[in-house]
Specification:
Elements (H helix, E strand, L loop, with lengths): L2 H9 L7 E4 L4 E5 H8 L5 H11 L2 H10 L1 E6 L5 E8 H10 L6 H19 L2 H13 L4 H19 L6
Antiparallel strand pairs: 1-2, 2-4, 3-4
Length: 166
């Protein structure tokens, strides 16, 4: 499972969020109504989604609607139905739009993540240290981590100088 999907699903505390991997775009798409159901106490997340769209400002609405797609996802009755889905960035924007106490931890997580990335702009070593810790937590050895980081640098150099390969 990719780290992006793992991270998103862990945030929902075990609630089922249907997702679809688009290999061409290298992006996950998540069911909007599943996210709404996980974050609200709505008995009908479809109605909640409809009302939320009508309350959004024109700017928010156009941003979400341009990213919103319909994919056939398996429903509770086992049939595949057209379902509104958003990519990772779209889902995170949707979460920001939901006025719910359950959405607050997501908003805090996003704020912390944004703060960390800003810190990394001023000190890129922080990003490298984060990557090393991530790989260690996944169980990789320091030798493997060193080889991986060197491979990333080598690949980056190939790309920078316009050489194909790797």
């Amino acid at each position: 499972m990719s780290s992006k999907l793992e991270t998103i699903l862990n945030l929902f505390e075990g609630k089922e969020i249907r997702s679809h991997w688009n290999a061409n775009e290298e992006e996950y798409y998540f069911s909007v109504v599943d996210v709404i159901s996980a974050l609200t106490n709505s008995k009908n997340p479809n109605d909640y989604w409809y009302r939320l769209k009508s309350r959004m400002s024109e700017e928010e609405k156009s941003e979400i609607s341009t990213k919103c797609r319909q994919l056939k996802l398996k429903s509770k009755d086992g049939k595949y139905r057209e379902t509104d889905v958003l990519d990772t960035k779209g889902i995170l924007r949707l979460i920001e739009s939901i006025p719910s106490p359950k959405a607050e931890p997501f908003k805090l997580w996003l704020a912390n993540l944004g703060g960390e990335r800003i810190d990394e702009i001023f000190n890129p070593e922080i990003a490298v240290n984060r990557a090393v810790e991530y790989y260690r937590n996944k169980g990789y050895t320091d030798e493997w981590i060193k080889a991986r980081l060197n491979g990333i640098v080598d690949y980056s150099n190939l790309q920078m100088f316009g050489k194909k390969g790797a």
